Amino acid sequence: MKPFTFDTAHSIVFGAGVSERIGELALQRLGGPAPGGTASGDARVLLVTDRGVVAAHLLDPALRSLRAAGLATEVFDGVVADPPESVVLAAAAQARDMGATAVIGFGGGSPMDTAKLVALLAQTGAALDDVYGVGKAIGPRLPLMLVPTTAGTGSEVTPVAVVTTAAREKQGVVSPLLLPDVALLDPELTYGLPRHVTAATGVDAMVHAIEAHESLNPNNNPLSRLLAREALRLLGDGIRSAVREGTHPEARCQMMLGAMLAGQAFANSPVAAVHALAYPVGAHFHVAHGLSNALVLPHVLRFNCATDGGAYAGVAPALFPFLAGTPASRRGLALADALAHLIEEIGLPTRLRDVAPGNGSRAGREVLPGLARDAIKQTRLLVNNPRPLSEADALGIYEAAW
């Protein structure tokens, strides 16, 4: 058995309604409570989120809990999807101005990624350009808690934060420093998610698990593969019920736990070509990351299976138990077909033309070579893919997805 490293959040707290204990849990990460069970007077928390979370009143119980614990709390709600550098810098500036002693990311992947970088930049004063890449972030950082309100990104347990540059390219910061002190998972926070968000984030989590399981990364390891298979079992069981009935307690628990396990898997055995091709789709067509993944997922799997019919044979039955009876040599293609059917069944667009400007006009199709050029720049991800992929291959996948 080859050596490997497995890193994850220092502490994971899971349970329905647990976000109402956020003040108590935050106190534990601020050096302990002052006499009387509340924070000392110099404890100040910046809560990083977006306006949608605020408008949905998801923050209300958490803010009450934080303030009841004596934690002076400010809210930065300017995060947007695929956060640009300017948003990250604005949030870090607010953290410095208020003298924040801790950061809480509350929301989907974008608020959590932003919070990770705020905790780092506000403490060190580093420039974003200096920390892009793998292992370039140098601490210390502020104490950090992450609270997901979707079940997809797994960002609450990953050492990765993704930012959109001025050139509309995705840049990643990858460092164990970005793993939080506490990942707090409350399935009740996902009850109000729209159907399409539940569907897209659920597929995103599936992609994390699938790619982690098959990754060529040298750190692909037994723990990641085990977590990936359990994540797919939970996600496959729960996604239809969660989409159909947003307040289904068991389905919401399955989705949130499955997404977290998938996050742990790919945090240690990184993702590959599905994500590399999804990033340009999101940047150019301005669609959510989970949907970008869904649009290219079956086509990347078919590409990978073209040279290895047994690819994904070990992971396919975890998501679709009926595939256990399919010969291993055909299981990968069967997985791609089953995923394509599932994506359509849960109501997501299935073709790039459905999300392209002009609703798939000829002009819209002309962006595909540009997407391929951008995708091939994602070398950090493409090296993990089971099959080498060229710019021409990427264009062919986008053409198939069109």
Describe this structure in words.
The protein is of the alpha/beta class and 402 residues long. The chain has two domains: 179 residues, Rossmann fold (3-Layer(aba) Sandwich); 207 residues, Up-down Bundle (Dehydroquinate synthase-like, alpha domain). Helix content is 49%, strand content 10%. The chain is built from 17 helices and nine strands. It has a six-stranded parallel sheet with strand order 1-9-6-4-2-3, with helices on both faces. The chain has a three-stranded mixed sheet with strand order 5-8-7. A hairpin with a 5-residue loop joins β7 and β8. α1 packs across α3 and α8 packs antiparallel against α9. The chain is globular. The termini are far apart. The relative contact order is 0.11.
Summarize the structure.
By secondary structure, this protein is an alpha/beta fold. The chain has 17 helices and nine strands.
List the helices and strands and how they pair.
Layout: E1 12-14, H1 22-28, E2 44-48, H2 51-55, H3 60-68, E3 72-76, H4 85-98, E4 102-107, H5 109-124, H6 128-131, E5 133-134, E6 144-148, E7 160-164, E8 170-174, E9 182-185, H7 195-214, H8 222-244, H9 249-268, H10 273-285, H11 289-305, H12 316-319, H13 328-345, H14 362-365, H15 368-375, H16 379-382, H17 391-401
Parallel strand pairs: 1-9, 2-3, 2-4, 4-6, 5-8, 6-9
Antiparallel strand pairs: 7-8
Helix pairs in contact: 1-3, 4-5, 7-8, 7-9, 7-11, 8-9, 10-11, 10-15, 11-13, 11-17, 15-17
